[in-house]
Amino acid sequence: MRSFCLLISLFSIFTISSHGLNILAILPLSMKSHYAIGNSIVKNLLNAGHNVTSITMFEPEQPINNYRVIHIPDTMNVSGWGDMNPLDYNDIPILLSVVMMPMMGADMINEIMKSEELNEFLERQDENFDVCILEIFTSEALLGIVEKYNCVLIQYTTFDAFIWIDKMTGNESPPSYVPHPFLEYTDNMSFVQRFYNKFFVLIDDFFYNFLHIPWQKFLYRKYFPNAKRTFDEMYRNSSIIFINNHVSHSFPRPHHQTQIEIGGIHVKPAKTFAKRFSRFSRFSNGWCNSIFNGFLYRWH
Ligand SMILES: *[C@@H]1O[C@H](CO)[C@@H](O)[C@H](O)[C@H]1NC(C)=O
Ligand SMILES: *[C@@H]1O[C@H](CO)[C@@H](O)[C@H](O)[C@H]1NC(C)=O
Ligand SMILES: *[C@@H]1O[C@H](CO)[C@@H](O)[C@H](O)[C@H]1NC(C)=O
Ligand SMILES: *[C@@H]1O[C@H](CO)[C@@H](O)[C@H](O)[C@H]1NC(C)=O
């Protein structure tokens, strides 16, 4: 009986054939903080045995099997945005940022679509993808790439759900207790904070509806004139939206069932201290070893 079971098991092992998926990941942003999330999704898919083609400006640290990169230019360096130190973004008046975003987005799409490597790739007729992944960050016009492959669409964001995602899925972020991610409020807002939050959401909504989306629609038609499906059809085609949030470090808020929290996906397992640190640690009388949770505390 045992040998019969063994035979059956061996037979099953040799007859099971696993079929990986062919996945296209569009990681348009050339900021490391955005790439960290997209790249972590890609790495997980590669580890699960799928083939991944990424459209990105970043090279993998080392060559990876079943991974291919279609290069696009550094989009941070267009219309002078790139010369700005990322730390200076905090100095931009917050109301100006809702106008700047659509402009940055349009510049980014124009720059990406200039890439010869990408255009050659898009002209090839022998490419097929089962799943396409696209970051939502002023990048809606790139849904035209997804349209070409007739694949299941998965999108992700480096934020929590907010207006860009709500509009796609019909989700709600009530401004009475869901702070806009650009404002540093909690769910416990004073009357004045709530008032400003609502006001800011209205302004954001206005520029999103009357500047950002019409502009992205225009770019979709410009770069993908042969698309069979319209922008609006593609805009609502996401099957899943990964959001960079986790219930353990945010406030209670509504999420549509297609929104899946993946906050922390980019966190790697902790490593032990490097040698020079352990020497420093001895020198420092061992206090370094008592650091909790990977943080360096500073005290006066
Ligand atoms: C994945 O890539 C390998 C090697 O390039 C290829 O043999 C295989 O057919 C690909 N799988 C799919 C699902 O396209
Ligand atoms: C941005 O592009 C200009 C030329 O277009 C180049 O001179 C400059 O070095 C670039 N800056 C960065 C940060 O890449
Ligand atoms: C909300 O904030 C107010 C004022 O800061 C405070 O008195 C109150 O306890 C807070 N409520 C909760 C539930 O944290
Ligand atoms: C996306 O579009 C395709 C083709 O129009 C359709 O078959 C599919 O059901 C749509 N998916 C979603 C989630 O709307």
Automatic annotation (TrEMBL):
Pfam family, one: UDPGT
InterPro entries listed in its UniProt record: UDP-glycosyltransferase, UDP_glucos_trans
An MF annotation (GO) of this entry: UDP-glycosyltransferase activity
Lineage, opening ranks: Eukaryota, Metazoa, Ecdysozoa, Arthropoda, Hexapoda
Family: Belongs to the UDP-glycosyltransferase family.
Protein name in the entry: Glucuronosyltransferase
Species annotation: Polypedilum vanderplanki (Sleeping chironomid midge)
Keywords: Glycosyltransferase, Signal, Transferase
Signal peptide region: 1-20
